[in-house]
Amino acid sequence: MDVSNEEEVCSNETVWLRRLGDLEEYFLAEGSSQIAVSLTLRSLRKFEEEEFRKAHLLLSSVPTLHVCIDDHKGKPWYRKRSADDQNNLSFLEEPSADTIMKHHTDMLHHKYTANTGPMWCLKIIHISKEDHDQRNALTEELHTYALVFGFHHSITDGNSNFLIIGHFVAMLERMIKGETQISTEQNFQFTPPTQTELLTNWEYVKLQLLPWNKRREVNFLKDVLINARPKLLELSPSTHDEKMTRVVRRNFDESLSKEFFHRCKRESITIHSGFSAVIDLAMAVVMKKAGLVADDNNNNTFTITCSHTINLRRYWWGDTSAALGTHISGIVSEQKVDPNTLENGDFWSLALDLHKRLQKDIRGRGPCRLLASYGVMLKEDPDIESHSDPPSLCYTNSNMGLVDKYFPASSVAAQSEDSTCHLEVVDIVQSSSLHNCRLLMLINFLTLRGRLLYSIDYNTEWVTDQTAVELADVIKELLQKSIE
């Protein structure tokens, strides 16, 4: 479907931008439509509420945030919103940063009205009595704020979120320096998925030219996305009445993170592959501890399936640095994992094997091929997903990589002893809602100022609090052991 820029102005001055792409429409229909991103900021001075309001108003003009979705010509279209109101901005005062995750989780259940908008919101929390450790030689009290952003998944993905939030933090930095002329100078574009569609169509043509390959790809998707029943489901709640998304977090300090990063480099694998292998092994360990029987009893292995989220802009031509929107797909991996891998001294072999397969798929445009194969599968059986109710993947992961690049001023502040550095981003967590969709867990990870941060979003319909917490703890334990 061609969804290139089709902007048109109707007689009533309604500006219709373009039709939604397939993925954008998917997130419109699914229950997995909310994203929450929470930042903890430390500032050398207290912000006035009016300063936040000004930055919020400027941010509202970013193209992807100034839209809503409505029916047009029988299809869902993006249109420009007519209002520049601030009813999606709220202020709170909290005594401790411990409450941030409650507001973060609440944002995952926020209800958006797509046909009127806004399709994003912001909660600004001043942590009033936080104990501040002093940075460098500063003697001034540091003021702590939590910025809890919510986005509808039909308008943003992880890359878009961080571009937008980085821009907001940059505006605050300029305000705190006393600048009065602040505008949205970034050349952001609400980019249609035209290039993704071209690449996917080419993969579709290749599948048609090689029927045996098409059959193999489609059968693999059916096996892992439709027919599979993860062993982890045996640890599900006895009833499936509660449908919520919850989040559990764990972080590594800079020293341990650095050791892990160096070990990944020494083993010639990416941090993504290394940490994904830790997660796969942790899942096998949790299932063994729970007394579950291995999928392959002879080899004592559990089958761990994961969809690795990929930013599709990596395959586009031209400059994509300002391309906003939802442009993601996945690479599905299937690992046979022995819970005793670490004790047997085979962990880094497991990680290297995963790394090689992921890199082959990434270089071979695997995410576009997956979209093409998925299209073939749906064409053969449009109702195929309705045949399967429980989730089929053990988990999905999302790796934002090194996020310091989105907050350049904060990165300078973290490393400088000059008191003119005003603002620091000291913590970040990103989550997506999973309730009412066929996903067990989404594991998010990123690197901020040398620290590996991760969180587990889990669907309470299928995952208990106990399982999620235990998995988060085992991941941390195994990563520490992997570098000993």
Could you please describe the fold and organization of this structure?
This protein is α+β, with helices and mostly antiparallel strands and 484 residues long. Helix content is 35%, strand content 25%. Strand 1 and strand 2 form a beta hairpin. Helix 8 packs across helix 9. The radius of gyration is 23 Å and the shape is globular. It starts with 7 loop residues before the first strand and ends with a helix. About 2% of the residues have low confidence.
Task: Give the biggest beta sheet.
Answer: 6 strands, mixed
* Structural class designation: alpha+beta
The CATH architecture of the largest domain is 2-Layer Sandwich
Q: Provide the β-strand percentage band.
A: 15-25%
Shape: globular
Assembly classification: single chain
- What is the CA-atom radius of gyration, in angstroms? 23 Å
Question: How are the SSEs placed, and which strands pair?
Answer:
Layout: E1 8-9, E2 15-19, H1 22-29, E3 34-43, H2 49-59, E4 67-72, E5 75-80, E6 89-94, H3 100-107, E7 120-127, E8 143-152, H4 158-176, E9 189-190, H5 194-209, H6 211-227, E10 245-251, H7 254-266, H8 271-289, E11 302-311, E12 323-324, E13 328-337, H9 347-363, H10 366-380, E14 395-402, H11 408-415, E15 423-432, E16 441-448, E17 451-459, H12 465-482
Parallel strand pairs: 6-7, 9-12, 11-14, 14-16
Antiparallel strand pairs: 1-2, 2-5, 3-8, 3-15, 4-5, 7-8, 10-17, 11-13, 16-17
Helix pairs in contact: 2-4, 5-6, 5-10, 6-10, 8-9, 8-12
Essential attributes:
single chain, 484 residues, alpha+beta, Chloramphenicol Acetyltransferase, 2 domains, six-stranded mixed sheet, five-stranded mixed sheet, 12 helices, 17 strands, 25% strand, globular
